[in-house]
Recover the amino acids of this structure.
């Protein structure tokens, strides 16, 4: 019976476990990781959290740009949103779903709680405050896009950014 134990274990346990990546690091901005899931979340939130500013494009470059802004602005109180602003934004996101169950499913599918989403929205509002205070243009103006790219370029120069290149297998 002992000779067959390894064979029996193989049939009981199946094939050996294989580690699969859960997420991928796109960049390191200061001390913040920018993950591929952050880029996907930008895309999903564009539907449920429409910003008054056209800054939330779903791209790795934009995710790095906003992480750089957060790195500079997170400790500056003038950019910090008031709790009622964040709560109102959370309510707007919740209301963008047909039902509360759909909202809860959205959170669960991303491994998030309402507190996590609140923190994320607070960070988004911080970035928006930073942009508003540094670009004095109407967001619908054609010049706004150029000013935004110029601002992000200035921010990138002031923050340590390491882009992570994925090697093909």
């Amino acid at each position: 019976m002992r000779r067959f134990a390894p064979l029996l274990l193989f049939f009981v346990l199946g094939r050996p476990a294989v580690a699969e990546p859960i997420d991928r690091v796109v960049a390191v901005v200061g001390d913040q990781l920018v993950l591929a899931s952050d880029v996907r979340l930008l895309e999903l939130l564009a539907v449920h959290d429409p910003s008054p500013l056209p800054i939330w494009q779903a791209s790795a470059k934009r995710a790095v740009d906003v992480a750089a802004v957060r790195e500079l602005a997170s400790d500056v109180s003038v950019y910090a949103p008031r709790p009622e602003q964040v709560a109102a934004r959370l309510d707007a996101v919740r209301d963008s779903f047909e039902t509360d169950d759909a909202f809860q499913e959205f959170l669960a599918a991303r491994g998030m709680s309402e507190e996590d989403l609140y923190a994320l929205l607070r960070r988004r509002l911080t970035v928006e405050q930073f942009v508003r205070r540094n670009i004095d243009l109407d967001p619908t103006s054609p010049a706004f896009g150029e000013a935004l790219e110029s601002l992000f370029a200035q921010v990138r120069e002031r923050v340590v950014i390491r882009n992570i290149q994925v090697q093909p297998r």
Remarks:
- The chain has seven helices and three strands.
- The mean pLDDT is 86.
- The radius of gyration is 21 Å.
